[in-house]
Every structure is written in C-alpha cells, then in structure tokens.
Amino acid sequence: MSRDYDVIILGSGPAGFSCAMQSSKFDKKALVVESHEKHLGGTWINTGTVPSKALREAAKTIVEFNTQFNSEEEKKPYDLFHMEDLLQYKNKILERENRKVKDDFIKNEVDVARGFGRLVDEHTVEVETHIGTMETYTGDFILLATGSSPAHPTKFKVDHDKVLDYESILNITHIPRRLVIIGSGVHAMEYATTFAALGTRVSVLSSRKDDLSFLDHEIKEEFISALSDSVTIRNDIVIEGIEFNSLRTYTEVHFRDQKEKDRLQVIETEHVLYLGGRKPNLENIGLNNANVETDSNGFIITDKHYQTSNTRIYAAGDVIGFPRLASASFTQGRQAACNMFGIPSLDNPDQIPYGIYTIPEISNIGITEQEAEEQGIDVTVGRAYFESIAKADMTNHKDGLLKLVFSTETLKLLGVHIVGDQATNLIHLGQAVMASDDDIRYFIQHVMNYPTLSEAYRIAAFNGLNRVYKAGVKYQRILENEQDQT
Ligand SMILES: Cc1cc2nc3c(=O)[nH]c(=O)nc-3n(C[C@H](O)[C@H](O)[C@H](O)COP(=O)(O)OP(=O)(O)OC[C@H]3O[C@@H](n4cnc5c(N)ncnc54)[C@H](O)[C@@H]3O)c2cc1C
Questions:
Q1: Is 276 in the pocket of ligand 1 (CB under 6 A)?
Q2: Which of 33, 165, 268, 339 lies most in the core, judged by the most C-beta atoms within 10 Å?
C-alpha cells in the first residue's frame, strides 16, 4: 500500500527540523505538522534558546560597553538603554531565524501542515487546523517531536503582567529595577545574570538545596564570585504565595526558608519571573492509539535508536526527557531519520558538552575532579585563570577559569571545565581532543592563534604537566616520552 509520506513529523523544533532535513537528503518525502499558528521552530526559536540568548547577547554588549567606555558611573544601564531596543534586536533575530527554517523546508521540498497533529494509528496522523477542519495523512514512519511547555505553579497565577513566565518575559516593556526569579537551575541563572547586566536587582528563590551542583566545585565557586552584587541566590525556599500590594505598588513574594520554617518572609519586587519545571507536550496526541509507552515522569520511552515501543514510531527532543537541549535534539532528530530508513549513522557520542549562558558563561564536558576521586581514577588537574590571558585582558573579561582534568599516568584528557567569556565556544577544542583520545600535550605541541582565549588550554596544560613532572625535569621528560612513542 502506498502512503502519502515516507515520514510524518509532529513538531518543527530542532528534533523535527533535523529529522525533516536528513530525510529529505535521503530523498524521502517528509511532512512536518506544526500546531503553532504563526511560527515554525518551536521553543528553540520562539520562546527558549534563541530569544533568551539574543537578549543575553544584547545585555552582554551593554556590560562590555559600560565597563570600557561609560564614564558616567552613577548611571545604571537602565538609565542609558531601553528595553524596547533590546526587544527590537531580539525580534529581528527571531524573524531571520524563522525565515531560515521556512526557506530550508521549501528548498528541501519538505511539506508543512499547520494544525494540531494526533496519532490515529501507527501510520495515520490527523491534523486539526486552526480553522477547525480535519486533514488526514498517512506515512511509513512517524516522528514525535512535540517538545515541552512550562508547568503551571500551584500557589500563584502567572498573569503575564506582574508575574511572568518563559514567554511573557520576552515581551517585557521596560527594564525592571527589581526582579524575583522563582526557579532553579540553568535558566534561572541565565536570566538572573542577563537582567543583572541591565542594572536590575535580582533575587533567585530556588527550591533546591543546592543549585548547579553538577558543576566542578572550583568552577562553581569562580562563577559565584564573578556574579555581580546585584544577584542574590537563596536556596531551599518554599513559596507561599504572591500578592500585589496596591498601597506600595509593589508585588510581594511570600516564602519560607526551610532552615527557619516558622518565619514567613516577604520580598518586594516589581516583577516575578516564574521559571518552574517543564512538561512534555503529549496531551491528546493519541499515544494510546499506537501503543506508544511513556515512563513514570510522562516522557516517551525510546531505545538508543530513538524508536518507541511501536517500531514504526520514533521520538526525539524534549519529549524523551534528559538532556532536553536544542543541541542534543538536533542530533537525535537526525539520527532517528537515519535509523528509520536503515542508513548507517555515526554512533552517539559518549560525551556531550553542556553550556550555560550566564554572564560569565559556563561549559563543561567529561568528568569533574570530584567525580574522578569518587571513581578512584588517578587524575591531575591543570588550571588557567583568565586574568593571565592577554585576550581576556584586552576584552575586559578577566573573571574566568579553564580547568583540565587528565589521567596522571597517561596524560589523557578526561574532562574540561570552563567558566568565563566564550566558554561555550572554547569547550569544543577540548571536546575534539577528548573525542580523538588524545592527551594534554596536544595543547603544547600545536601552534594556536595568538592572542585568543584558547591560550587558556596551553597555560592549563603546562600547569598540569608541571604538577605531574615536578620542577626541574618536567619539560625534557615530556619531550623524551614523545620521542619514545614515535
Ligand atoms: C528559556 C530556555 C532557554 C534555553 N536555552 C537553550 C540553550 O541555550 N541551548 C540548548 O541547547 N537548549 C536550550 N533550551 C532547550 C531547547 O529550547 C529545547 O531543548 C529544544 O527546543 C527542544 O526541541 P524539540 O524539537 O524537542 O521541541 P520544541 O523546540 O519545543 O518544538 C516542538 C514543536 O512542536 C509543536 N507541537 C506541539 N504539539 C504539537 C502537535 N500535537 N502537533 C504539531 N505540533 C506540535 C510546538 O508548537 C513546537 O513548535 C532552552 C529552553 C528554554 C525554555
């Protein structure tokens, strides 16, 4: 029986987009179903990755300008810049990125159906359009890539005026003087440092006992010490409610610190930004009609080929849970396409880098020094502080640390941890060395452009080797070892 499409994809975020692109390169006929009335690109382009990073880049440019050239020190960024300009900057980027997705679909002859897609069976999808009509399509395979949405808080309402969420923060009309962020983890820290860069006093109220606990301890310490005085982070907090105080024209956040539960505390703020958890978009998409199973947290279960419990149906991106990143979703969608059409693809990498777009940014790959200790691996570390790097001096980004974790015996690179400007870019050099199973002598033997922040790798490698080979014999020993091996 011939079907309408080789693959029908629900969702046009990074997972759906890359599956469509890869399928089209295999000469397969693909249909993307997108429920958003206006935009393609999902959370990636419209409410998550791209807009938050566009605002962050704008805020970072302002900090850089102010630090270098603003002599009116008493003036805060919000006195000098307008949110309207930042929003315009962000919106132009979104328009361009949206256009690129649309153009890529057209160029690659990927069809798009607008409306809410639902599984009827393992080969059939019905689409409820925005004008209420129903369309039905059949496909050999189906990819579920419907992404995730913010979960709703229980103790207060997000009114998108005083209390904002992932979406409404992107349209805030002015730079607030005070902002309380309710939430923990990466997004809370990213928005906290973005607004702090604009002069806002930010309080993060986190329910977790410890935030960013997955980071190497020294990197976290360096990050906390680089945070501006405008950011306060309070952990182990339970929110009791939010009220608008019309007399004082402030919004009050009522909360308790778990360490002193009896005391109800209040913070006055201009706005609250709620960045709670996210849930997969799987409601009413007909998983039961095709026996697609989910786990206890509601995410779709897949094997390492991104195949679900139904062999004709694949899933990728946020709907399958961790790591819920655009970066990973691109790879998963592409690999799902390779797997469904039986085309060999490269194996999944063992290690992926993580990027946190705070100011300064953080990135890491591989094991931390603490994990190595716990696992009984004999490692040595090498450090380079950004203040010793000429490029960091020139760009005024002297807060930062690059830390290499490597095997003391073989010098093989096992982990790279960076806090500082361009960390999310810098990490890829370490990633490449790790993927080639190389050791830290790579950073000494190869000439790299100067001045660059990559110099941190060379300094950290020397720092680590000095520790291994102790003073006196160190460099000669390294070279001798090198000659023995060739
Ligand atoms: C504030 C924020 C910042 C982030 N920053 C980063 C970052 O810096 N780096 C990074 O790697 N990741 C980042 N992420 C995570 C990243 O955005 C997501 O992991 C990624 O977008 C998930 O991709 P996806 O394809 O699974 O889903 P999405 O991008 O969410 O796309 C899913 C699409 O499916 C559509 N859809 C839903 N239901 C249906 C249906 N039934 N029928 C048809 N269409 C449907 C939706 O409208 C949406 O367009 C961030 C997320 C947030 C919220």
A1: no
A2: 33
